[in-house]
């Protein structure tokens, strides 16, 4: 029987294992629910700032039969906070979010602080990965990075950023270079700490928001630069892009990640048609996971498999009130299908 790490390694290599993998990376695609916290009596928001608690929740995702991986952190705000944004760490019901921007225009980006890997929540994440590396075996450890466009839009008003892509194009590129360099350093440190996979989620860098030209110029360019800056000896990389893909499939195919992840608005059969040679991940509706039934989750999971998904996962971050019985049904359905 394949271990979860062996199964994922085969998938990233373009081979066909016994069945699709079942993961939920972390980061934007947070996998921690209220039910899971109650089961192990470890809670958010405390685990956002405590490496031992963060690792305990990440391990519980695997040990309690939810997904076949561990992943940290559980939000998309670490990088922005370390560079100067103000963040509300949330609660047991809602995730951390930016409440104060660090700059008002790309022209001010030199005011931003470089990410200090030796303190703050960046250090918490790295310490949690080290704990997971020491205390787990045969389970992929997924480190997470917020994508370059989304990080840039967490440090300043996103609408202003989008406008300045046209009005201050050269300055935006300088800003994006700075952002990407910080993400590369954080990603390299996660791999060094023990992460097997790096997942990059860039929900603000969509084709719908940016349009095909700016999507290629900013999202694809800087995600690829980030990917090229990461070590290649580990299992692989995942890039998640939100929104419709129809206008930007050609540009998406230029992303150099080992796997591409899409949310539930993208029909997996359509994605497979446009990206026949890529490893695809997704995309069980998070609405169904929170408000549906196990039978509905099983049907959606089977549909993703039939449509050609190589890695089955929630389409986006889980609602924290999602019943754990629904969450566990994805993996249960895959194991039943294999049997």
TrEMBL record:
The keyword Transit peptide does not apply. GO terms for biological process: methylation; porphyrin-containing compound biosynthetic process. It comes from the Bacteria. Keywords: Methyltransferase, Transferase. GO terms for molecular function: methyltransferase activity; uroporphyrinogen decarboxylase activity. Residues 3-332 form the Uroporphyrinogen decarboxylase (URO-D) domain. This is Methylcobamide--CoM methyltransferase.
């Amino acid at each position: 029987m394949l271990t979860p790490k062996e199964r994922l390694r085969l998938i990233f290599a373009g081979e066909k294992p016994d069945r699709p993998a079942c993961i939920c990376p972390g980061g934007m695609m947070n996998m921690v629910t209220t039910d899971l916290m109650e089961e192990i009596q470890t809670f958010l928001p405390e685990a956002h700032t405590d490496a031992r608690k963060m690792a305990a929740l990440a391990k519980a995702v695997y040990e309690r039969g939810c997904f076949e991986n561990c992943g940290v952190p559980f939000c998309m705000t670490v990088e922005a906070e370390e560079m100067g944004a103000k963040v509300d760490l949330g609660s047991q019901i809602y995730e951390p979010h930016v409440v104060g921007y660090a700059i008002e225009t790309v022209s001010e980006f030199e005011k931003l602080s470089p990410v200090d890997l030796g303190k703050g929540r960046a250090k918490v994440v790295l310490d949690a990965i080290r704990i997971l590396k020491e205390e787990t075996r045969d389970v992929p450890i997924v480190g997470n990075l917020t994508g370059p466009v989304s990080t840039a839009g967490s440090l300043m008003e996103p609408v202003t950023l989008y406008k300045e892509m046209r009005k201050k194009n050269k300055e935006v590129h300088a800003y994006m270079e700075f952002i990407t360099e910080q993400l590369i350093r954080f990603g390299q440190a996660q791999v060094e700490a023990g992460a097997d996979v790096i997942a990059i989620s860039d929900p603000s860098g969509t084709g719908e928001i940016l349009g095909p030209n700016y999507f290629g110029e900013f999202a694809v360019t800087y995600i690829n630069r980030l990917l090229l800056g990461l070590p290649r000896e580990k299992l692989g990389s995942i890039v998640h892009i939100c929104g419709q893909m129809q206008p930007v499939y050609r540009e998406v195919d230029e992303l150099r990640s080992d796997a591409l992840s899409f949310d539930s608005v993208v029909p997996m059969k359509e994605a497979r048609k446009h990206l026949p040679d890529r490893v695809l991940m997704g995309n069980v509706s998070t609405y169904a996971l929170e408000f549906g039934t196990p039978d509905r989750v099983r049907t959606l999971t089977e549909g993703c498999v039939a449509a050609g998904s190589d890695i089955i996962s929630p389409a986006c971050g889980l609602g924290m009130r999602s019943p754990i019985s629904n969450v566990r049904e994805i993996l249960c359905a895959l194991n039943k299908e294999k049997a």
